[in-house]
Please model this.
Amino acid sequence: MVLPLVCRALLAGRRWLPGAAAAPHGDRRLSPALPTAPAAAARLCSGAGGAAEAAGGDGALLRHLARKLRASGPVTVAEYMREALTNPGQGYYTRRGGVGESGDFITSPEISQVFGELIGIWYISEWMAMGKPSTFQLVELGPGRGTLTEDILRVFKQLASVLSKCDVSVHLVEVSPKLSEIQAVMLTGGTVQPNPEDESAYMKGISKTGIPIFWYRDIQDVPPGYSFYLAHEFFDALPIHKFQRTEKGWREVLVDIDPEVPDQLRFVLSPSRTPATQNFIQPEETRDHVEVCPEAGAIVQRLACRIEKDGGAALVADYGHDGTKTDTFRGFRNHKLHDVLSAPGTADLTADVDFSYLRKMAQGKTATLGPIKQREFLKNMGIDLRLQVLLQNSGDTATREQLLHSYDMLMNPEKMGDCFNFFALLPHHRLVHPDKKDKPESKSPLPPVAGFNELLLK
Ligand code: SAH
Model:
């Protein structure tokens, strides 16, 4: 695979990344003391942090859930997870959403700005391969602190001459009022207009680089149009249903109040089949325990329909598997594993993404690529060349050590390199000429999709 010339120039350039070259700690977001996470835990754990402490954990959500469970019986894990993460008053993401070093978990864009810059190059490369449409929307689902979009917008700014005739806008899908505030400060400097008239957005502003930015609670509210979608560590935060094979057939795992201990939650099995067991378990399923995330399925279906109709592409990056894993539901608080049923609302709850399910839910409306491992994707995007250039241009030992350390975090198979994956939705015509079957010799070959093919730097 050969990256477009303009993208290769960016990789080799020393001036387009002033942050990385000049920041006092080299790769600016990296804590020198981040230890390795167990690969199975997937979210990256480090030393002390404090979102959960800051959030208080006063037990209000637990009391609310306990009342509900006593009144109307056990709830599905999906319903529990939804309450714990996005309850309007007490949910984990609603109140705080502790992404970053001082929070409960750390993500790739928070570790190194090179990560976001390579993703920015991916979008430019696809935009060029698709014939440089005159307008596109960058739509990020679950933008966290806004760091990834910030890094991508810096790439767009560096390529202003290439994008000069293209009308670019940014659309962020975020349920957390707290995180949308943080994103607004990060991306616009804090000058935003809440509830703009005549818009489906709940907030709008202008990026520091002059690009309009809109915020929505739901992907359905984002206006139609040619769009590049991005979901980094988003699908793992959506509610899952859990199922257990028993001698009597499939049963759904539910959350109930423990009758022996006041205000303590426990897992129980549904006494009979539930609507979800009927709808979500495939007859050919061989595993004994299965997790399904219908909300992720519905969102992928929507993205595939939008890409088929209006054009664009979607890049999904997350930890996950291809329909093979069983029990992956976990909690994280203060960068440590946390009992998922303890103190709901004070910890991040997450489950591995089932990419085979996402592929199925695209329903053939788009082509899919991946999942491929993060270390392969980033290697194909030119991270090694980028590292070399940054190392050559960094004057002091501390900066060089930080750059090497952040590279290791992203790429080491024991850290984030193997458990995180990249997956893409693309229009069929991006991979195969529509009339190729009829006249195979008449068309020039389509450029390969960056990141999913080996990089040849000529
Ligand atoms: N992409 C970021 C943050 C990941 S954390 C990063 O990689 O650093 C998950 C993000 O998804 C948070 O911004 C959270 O508030 C948001 N989120 C969680 N559930 C959501 C939902 N149902 N709809 C929209 N956003 C959601």
User: Anything to note?
Assistant: Residues 241-290 form one domain. The radius of gyration is 22 Å.
